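User
New here, explain this?
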Amino acid sequence: MLPAGTYEGATVLVTGGGTGLGKAIAVEFGRLGASVAVASRSPEHRAAGVAAVEAVGSRCVGVGMDVRDPAAIAAAFDLVEDQLGPVDVLVNNAAANFPVAAADLSPNGWRAVEQIVLDGTFFCSQELRRRAAARGSEAVIVNIAATQAMTGGPGMAHSAAAKAGVVSLTKTLAVEWAPDGIRVNAIAPGLFPHDDMPAAIRAARDESVDAARQPAGRVGQPHELGWAATWLCSPYASFVTGHVLVVDGGNWLRRDFAMPPFRPITDQLPR
């Protein structure tokens, strides 16, 4: 999508970059010449992300990070700076999710998702801003949101609420940090099936059926999300900040002339 070498000399940190959409994003940055850091709590996930980025010819390191822990985040940034250089681009992709009716959602389940999605996004963003401001450098942040942040998400109250927080945070930080030369945007993906989807969600998916439900007539391909992220962080989007880019083939805007019968979420979820 962008000229070869667009990110030559840049260091990109992708949280949750070892699997699924995070890995696809990391690969596209690597393809454009960036040095990439793949952050994850799982050594296996880090290894998978590093292998994928190195396969397109880019430098890559895996770094252990719990995005809920500011001290662990600072240590991870130190490691990335030591091995690749200061972070220029941060992609806050780390997330947690599982389908559950709100009435059945436990306090621990709520906290687990909210802390990774919302707290983690803020803590990582704050760390990047602190370091970039200290060295007087510009930087870019892209947060991975979700269309349910704008519409609500039956069966995913925890995730929808946390992602709505991410959308609001994106717009707030874009204004506060613009004088520091830091751009902050978000991407709200639609349906992007991939091999690393949680088993409970993957079991409910049928790609041929899902494709027929999309206005575009198909589901998304993971690399397309990588294209969106690399453009938003590039010099070609240098005047874009505080924006939420929906990448879903028009699905979140879909409204039928005659809506199908309503089914409570408790009837849709497996028991």
